[in-house]
Task: inverse folding
């Protein structure tokens, strides 16, 4: 039986849950709830991920564990990363591994096998983030693995960090570099379009650049967009509306700190506090879901 196309699965999940929310799982040790102290352990990371997944499962289309925080704990951290991926997938959530991998073709193929290969691999997720700035041979192995196993790829196009302009905005014959890369992403993804009309190759475009986001939506009409920068980084509903098509599909919006550490900020701090941090996570995810859906429908 052929694997189900990733973008079709993603769009079905969004429509079925009426949610365009992706919850980033960034287990920052210093911000983990007091009950998980000390935070710098694999066990604390796993317990935190379990709590987050349980809290957001009905409100999020996907989760996005950030591998960097796990890598910082060494081998135990990567065990915790594998467990986080497993827990989320068993809960029925799509998992986007935020690994930002890229390399020459042979090495990229090894990365792709590790993160997008057959089910059963320790780090295999439903989709991953990749850096396309090495060119086609650094991306192709990920696309091949995605096609073979029904998985997805999100290429960095215009990232949410302030200094992205240093490189991504460089003039390339009258076009900024990120627009040139967007054209490549649309072309590379053309053979991977599913019944939804969207490709298994999507793009990462930051909510912190709303004008550029609108332009990139037009340049990549068939690429699902993963939009970070919502919440703690300053992006809001108005900034991300341009990412969606007329049906409110075509994009998912990531929030990490704003949801997983909601107990640290108002109004959730007053309502729940650190002892009821899971309830704060659930409430923040539900609020973001409602805000986005109402704004795009």
Result:
């Amino acid at each position: 039986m052929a694997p189900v196309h990733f973008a079709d699965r993603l769009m079905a999940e969004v429509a079925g849950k009426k949610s365009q929310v992706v919850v980033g799982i960034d287990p920052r040790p210093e911000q983990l709830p007091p009950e998980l102290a000390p935070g710098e352990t694999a066990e604390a990371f796993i317990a935190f991920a379990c709590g987050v997944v349980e809290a957001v499962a009905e409100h999020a289309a996907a989760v996005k564990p950030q591998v960097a925080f796990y890598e910082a704990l060494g081998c135990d951290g990567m065990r915790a990363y594998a467990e986080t991926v497993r827990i989320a997938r068993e809960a029925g959530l799509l998992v986007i591994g935020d690994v930002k991998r890229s390399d020459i073709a042979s090495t990229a193929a090894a990365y792709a096998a590790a993160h997008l290969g057959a089910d059963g691999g320790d780090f295999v997720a439903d989709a991953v983030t990749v850096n396309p700035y090495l060119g086609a041979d650094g991306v192709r192995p990920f696309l091949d693995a995605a096609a073979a196993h029904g998985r997805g790829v999100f290429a960095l196009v215009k990232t949410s960090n302030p200094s992205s302009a240093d490189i991504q905005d460089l003039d390339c014959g009258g076009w900024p570099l990120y627009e040139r890369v967007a054209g490549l992403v649309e072309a590379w993804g053309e053979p991977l379009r599913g019944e939804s009309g969207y490709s298994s190759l999507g793009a990462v475009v930051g909510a912190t650049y709303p004008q550029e986001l609108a332009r990139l939506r037009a340049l990549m009409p068939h690429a699902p967009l993963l939009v970070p920068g919502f919440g703690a980084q300053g992006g809001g509903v108005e900034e991300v509306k341009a990412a969606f098509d007329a049906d409110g599909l075509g994009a998912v919006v990531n929030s990490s700190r704003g949801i997983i550490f909601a107990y640290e900020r108002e109004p959730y701090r007053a309502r729940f506090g650190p002892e009821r941090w899971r309830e704060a996570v659930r409430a923040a995810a539900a609020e973001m879901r409602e805000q986005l859906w109402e704004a795009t429908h």
Summary: The two ends are 35 Å apart (CA to CA). DSSP finds 13 helices and ten strands in the chain.
